[in-house]
Amino acid sequence: MAEQTVKLTKATKKNFDTQGVDDLVMLPKVTEEAIIENLKKRYHNDLIYTNIGPVLISVNPFRNLGNGGDAWINTYKNKFRHELPPHIYALAEETYRAMKGELENQCVIISGESGAGKTECAKMIMQYVAAVSGTGSGAIEYIKSVILDSNPLLEAFGNAKTLRNNNSSRFGKYFEIKFDTHGEPCGGRITNYLLEKSRVVNPGLNERNFHIFYQLINGASEQEAQDFQLFQEDNFNYLRVSNCVQVAGIDDVQWWSETRHAMQTVGISQASQAAVFQLVAAVLHIGNIGFSEDDKGNAVVFDSRMLDLACSMLQVESFVMSSAILFRVVNTGAASRGSTYNVPQNVEQASFARDALAKSIYSRLFDWLIAQVNAALEKHALTSGAVIGVLDIFGFEIFDNNGFEQFCINFVNEKLQQYFIELTLKAEQEEYNQEGIQWTPIKYFNNKVVCDLIESKRPPGIFSILDDVVYTMHATAGGANDQKFLGKLGAVASHLHYQGWTHGFTIKHYAGDVSYNVEGFCDKNKDSLFQDLVEGMQSSSLPFLVSLFPENTGAAQKKRPTTAGFKIKNSCGELMKALSACSPHYVRCIKPNENKAAQDWDAQRCKHQVQYLGLYENVRVRRAGFAYRATFERFLRRYKKLSPTTWGMWGEWTGDNRQGCQELLRGINVPESQWQFGKTKIFIRHPETLFHLEELLERFDYDCTVRIQNAWKRWKMRKHALEQRALAADLLRGKKERQRDSVGRQFFADYMAYARNFGIQAVINDGETMVFADQVVKLNRRSRPERRDLVITDRAVYLVMRKKRGAEVFYKVTRRTSLDSIRQVSLSTLADNYIVLHTPNEYDNLFENEKKSEVLSVVNEYYEKLTGQKMQVTFSDSISYKIRTGDTRTINFQKGGAAKLQKSGKTLTVIVPDGLPKDTDSTPKGFRERGAGARSGGGASRARGGAARGAASAAAGARGGAGAARGGPAAGAARGGAGPARGGAGPPRGGAGAARGGAAPGAMGPRGG
């Protein structure tokens, strides 16, 4: 499979007319119209992400743009926000970097109306964080899998197709991912808010119930379908009522498979899975229980077969279920003298009890699934250091008929808007005033007045009035209680953002006016199940169902039961407290049209969203304000190492923090126009300045890390080089005369700047590491000298020829010999530089190199590593070798005067000057006394090869370029070489930069010391 590539487009002045700017702060002129036009340009170019400083705007494209996945993750990994175009991965990277770098809690708040793409943004953030947090232990990998697989599981049970969104979240979710001090996920927790239970019994027209019902019906096995008595969707009242079953783009069978896989990942056993789906089927069968009136007007079960089928799923006796639904137990009087009555219910009341039971079972089942995910996340009980929270919550909703659910949903969104205003508009401007920063105030609408209208206790807000009515409800019909509630709302009638009407009331929300019909408000707010039904479920022989109803029905009720409104207010308060403990990051999602169509821009709808999201005010504050602020102590603590005046070998700054910040910024030449001091904090005006500081910090830390690594590698290499020299000494002692200059020669491995020669690196096989590189003279089949580059890797020996075309040098491998194919190495007993590598199945390599001792040591070591056997090394003054044609040649060595090479037929004779005695010991001085390890060639792990190794030191280069071949012929210009002959004074032409032996940047220094 070909690797996916990522094409990025940065907005520039040249393409501004067609695709706008990446960041709305950079607009030439800031107006509401300019903001909308810029978003439109980018949307039509499939550029759905735009920044307002640190705030990300995401426009739903309603199609897959292919802008996610591993390739995109790798593109944005370790990049700063300004380096690449806006993307949800860029915001995720910034969030993760801040958490890991400062070990401070972070949160991402994703807001927008239903269908704007909030859930997809949340999934991509969690996907990114799981991918970039590296690979760790089995426990960490397990936590990552739970984080990712929790999405399809909770979407199956908590999402549904609505008029505005085919995969709408019908619950709120705050997902906290815990990290250890190394930035690895080590746990987490999901908090859910306000599941839309009413959808279970009454999904809207042309909408669907929760996905899991359709997944179960279409994806269950034949046996499961038989066990759970599953039929087509139109056979179930709870599914048939909406007149919508199939949805384009939703594959219920595929999603069913993903749901089952996710349940396994989370650790839900097969038995528990079966129990879960049995209850899902039970909910459907409960909906098929119908009622009719008897002659007294009381409800009776219309078809007892439907009741029996539902009871078989619940494993509850039919008469118990029938009694709990058709009668209500009413207690009168005090406990000691009280009486108990079974009051028959009418059809409406029985239907209400049936639906209440179905909603309660499903809601409790959903809570159980959340608890299972949380248990899986905390399975290994790892210690956490910081948290990243991702808030994916239901969007603002305005329908033709808005009820209690929409009221609660819009209240939460109102609170989130208030939080956004508090942090991005109100708090920022107040901070400037407190710190004494010069500032021109910017006006904005503060929606706190709307929040108070809904949640205030004194004077009572709408929730308090509703709770008061619910607490005084008795057996009064629901409609009468709703009208009583509407009447009591007269207490807030004078509020500027409230208006009453015949069947409900209207609130002027930040996102627009919404009219609520009060029908069902009181019953839905009561949010309690009749005790008869609870006891009925507790009588089940299905332990899983019983565990979902842990209430103690025998205990006297001493306090008022909590209402749905009370719960959502408390949950919202806890959410705001959790968000306030984090550094926030914002994603503002926009829905471009109501048709869920790609490339369709509804100007009026988008204008409305830009207005209520406060984007215009946000841009103005960002342009006029400062991108970053921190206390003097915190800023100095993070960046002090960047300046020699605040950090160094002498110590670190311990004086006044404010003065330290001033010294730091001046020490790294940050213009004073880019920063300003308040009373307790430093303010950085432009984000580019902050990015510059972060880049300097990363570079500083990287450089320090590299210096430490290089120091360790130098030590490791020197130690290993000593072992190699000792090995060579053992192999040659008593067997070969030595050259005076070679006895004390240090081993450097790289004599041709291989680390910087990318041309020659390109012809070496991937995955192989260079362990020796130098230029040699090779004798061809006609016994003529040719210069070659010799590269020995941990797997093979390469002979490489250079060819020059114009000013460019090309490299071609003339021969690659696998190390494990070599069976013998031959050398003479005299002081020459020839070496023969014998390869039985091929022809042999004969070449001349003054570093033959190092070549011998390297070949011997890596041959043993590959084969587990010792290399056979022979010494003879008459060596036979095989050439390419298969013929055999002989090379003889004789002592004489000046070095020269003579040829006679198939025999070569090398005249060699006298050398040092054979018993000369070239073992490094003091090596044996230091006990520097075994000299078998295995030794310490080698660190040779790569840029960290660098080139050889200048000391080696003093021997003069290619150098004369000591003991060999002065052969003149070698054929096939791009540079001068060996023995010439100049550096090789077309090399990698420095002459052989010249020092490269970051050179490791002499190997062997």
Fold and architecture overview:
The protein has 1009 residues and is an alpha+beta fold. Helix content is 39%, strand content 18%. It contains 33 helices and 33 strands. The strands form 9 sheets. An 8-stranded mixed sheet has the order 25-24-23-22-28-27-26-29. α2 (32-44) crosses α24 and α16 (404-435) crosses α17 (448-455). The chain is elongated.
- Count of strand segments: 33
Q: In angstroms, what is the radius of gyration?
A: 40 Å
Percent helix: 25-40%
Shape: elongated
Q: Biggest β-sheet: count, sense, barrel?
A: 8 strands, mixed
Uncertain stretches of 5 or more adjacent residues? 932-1009
Distance between the termini: 48 Å
**Average pLDDT rating:** 85
Based on secondary structure, the structural category is alpha+beta
Number of helices: 33
Assembly context of the chains: single chain
Fraction of residues in β-strands? 15-25%
The strands making up the biggest β-sheet line up spatially as 25-24-23-22-28-27-26-29
Q: Which descriptors would you attach to this protein?
A:
single chain; 1009 residues; alpha+beta; eight-stranded mixed β-sheet; seven-stranded mixed β-sheet; 33 helices; 33 strands; elongated
Would you kindly provide a brief summary of this structure?
The chain is of the alpha+beta class.
Spell out the blueprint of helices and strands:
Blueprint: H1 16-19, H2 32-44, E1 49-52, E2 55-59, H3 70-76, H4 88-102, E3 106-111, H5 118-132, H6 138-158, E4 159-160, E5 168-169, E6 172-179, E7 185-193, H7 198-201, H8 211-219, H9 222-227, H10 237-240, H11 252-266, H12 270-286, E8 291-293, E9 299-301, H13 304-314, H14 318-326, E10 327-332, E11 339-344, H15 347-377, E12 386-392, H16 404-435, H17 448-455, H18 462-471, H19 478-488, E13 498-501, E14 504-509, E15 512-517, H20 521-526, H21 531-538, H22 543-547, H23 564-580, E16 583-590, H24 603-612, H25 615-624, E17 628-631, H26 632-639, E18 647-648, E19 651-652, H27 657-667, E20 675-677, E21 681-684, H28 687-732, H29 740-743, H30 758-762, E22 770-779, E23 785-793, E24 796-805, E25 808-818, E26 824-827, E27 834-838, E28 845-848, H31 852-867, E29 872-875, E30 878-882, E31 888-895, E32 900-904, E33 907-912, H32 927-930, H33 954-957
Parallel strand pairs: 2-16, 3-12, 3-16, 26-29, 31-33
Antiparallel strand pairs: 1-2, 4-5, 6-7, 6-12, 8-9, 10-11, 13-14, 14-15, 17-21, 18-19, 20-21, 22-23, 22-28, 23-24, 24-25, 26-27, 27-28, 30-31, 32-33
Helix pairs in contact: 2-24, 4-5, 5-6, 6-8, 6-11, 6-15, 8-11, 12-13, 12-15, 14-21, 16-17, 16-23, 18-19, 26-27, 28-31
